[in-house]
Amino acid sequence: MEAYHYSFYYFLDYFCRYMFTKLPISSFLNKFSLPLIDVRSPAEFHKGHIPGSTNIPIFSNEERKIIGTLYKQQGREQALLHGLDLVGPKMSQFVTQAKKLDQGQGIAVHCWRGGMRSESMALLWKMAGIKVNIIQGGYKAYRQQIHEDFAKPFKLLVVSGKTGSGKTDILKELQNQGEQIIELEGIANHKGSAFGALGQDEQPTVEQFENNLHHALSQLDPNQQIWIEDESHSIGQVYIPLPFWHQMKASPALVVEIPQKIRIERLIKEYAEFPPELLQNAVERIKKRLGGKNVKEAIAALDQKNFSLGTEIALNYYDKAYLHHLKQRAESQIHRFVIPEDYPEKTATKLINYCQQHLPS
User: How many whole angstroms separate alpha carbon 251 and alpha carbon 240?
Assistant: First the structure.
């Protein structure tokens, strides 16, 4: 049995080395046309995966734990043999799933490092008549690549302003007028404040947020300006990659200054529909910064459906936090715009015209 294992292992290694195309991750990302299959476990896939990939796990989460324990306690041979026993009954299912994805041009496959798991599945699919490409270095190489890409220079223009200024709507209008945008809050499934999770889907993991952000950036022309909303390093439970965030902080900030009354009206429209207990919980989350007295007054206002007063109390904290955040920028990079009315379309046009005249790309 041991001799069988060694012969199989070396055959697999030889076959995969010479019979499959191994794509560098940079080449694959530049030509994202093949269906991509991630054969890692569901838990690995959930933690982070290449956007657009499909998970066909060679092992379940529990099976992967068993294989890992065998590898540590009894060595590679026993782990491989037990892995073959686990995979055998699932092989026809693997072929069926892959053929559904194959559009006639073949597929690409990866695991963590482009090793045994992806090579084993590639061999199976090759025998089933599917053209298979293996991602060289696997998901690990992908993660290294995206972190290198975040450090590359981008031509960013940052839309900034106090809470309730309608920055997301301004971004959307910029896009409608032909500009490139990145909507960080949409990618993060969070609006950035203590209230930011209300009405949003579950946030991605930190790792998946980075993957999704990289994918969004890869769809844009890096030689052209990219508009992005001003954000703290963290958005809810996820974080903007530091090299990219530092670029945001060093880029021109176009600060829209909208009257507090308009901002309060915007926030009421956005949040007043949520159950009072959720709003109160959000207020409680900033208790230390807002102060006990203000928290009590804000909650009492919400109980009485006096959303205007409750919002005004919360804005006292958020406006101070924003001004502190803005002071971290060089004054020469701050461009202020007094916007007396809530017309995102007009504001977007104004920002575009200003940048064309004063901030040439």
Answer: 15
Contacts of 243 (CB under 8 A, 6+ apart): 147, 150, 151
Do 151-358 and 2-144 have the same topology in CATH?
A: no
What is the distance between the alpha carbons of residues 284 and 282, in angstroms, rounded to a whole number? 5
H helix or E strand, kind and range, residue 36 = strand 36-38
Is 355 a catalytic site residue?
no
Each residue's pLDDT tens digit, 209-254: 999 999 999 999 999 999 999 999 999 999 999 999 999 999 999 9
Tokens of 117: 């798991």
Q: What is the mean pLDDT of residues 136-161?
A: 97
Is 106 buried (19+), middle (13-18) or exposed (0-12) by CB count in 10 A? middle
Q: DSSP letter at 40?
A: S
Q: List the beta bridge partners of residue 55.
A: 38
Residue 228 tokens read as: 């992005």
CB 325 within 8 A of CB 193: no
Task: Specify whether the CB–CB gap between 101 and 37 falls below 8 A.
Answer: yes
42, 61 Cβ separation under 8 angstroms: yes
Cα separation, 90 vs 104, in Å, equals 23
CA angle, residues 131, 135, 138, in degrees to nearest 5:
140
Answer for the pair 289, 317: CB distance below 8 angstroms, yes or no: yes
**CATH architecture, domain defined by 2-144:** 3-Layer(aba) Sandwich (3.40)
CATH top-level class for 151-358? alpha beta
The catalytically annotated residue of 111, 198, 295, 315 is: 111
Strand partners, 336: 255
Euclidean distance between CA atoms 33 and 214, whole angstroms: 17
Domain limits, the chain: 2-144, 151-358
Report whether 108 contacts 23 (CB < 8 A).
yes
Query: For the whole model, what pTM was predicted?
Result: 0.91
Question: In angstroms, how far is CA 13 from the centroid of its own chain?
Answer: 35
Q: Helix (H, G, I), strand (E, B), or coil: what is residue 41?
A: coil
| Residue 3 clears pLDDT 70, i.e. is over it | no
Q: Which residue has the tokens 């690409």?
A: 108
Strand order in the sheet with 21-24: 21-24, 132-136, 107-110, 36-38, 54-55
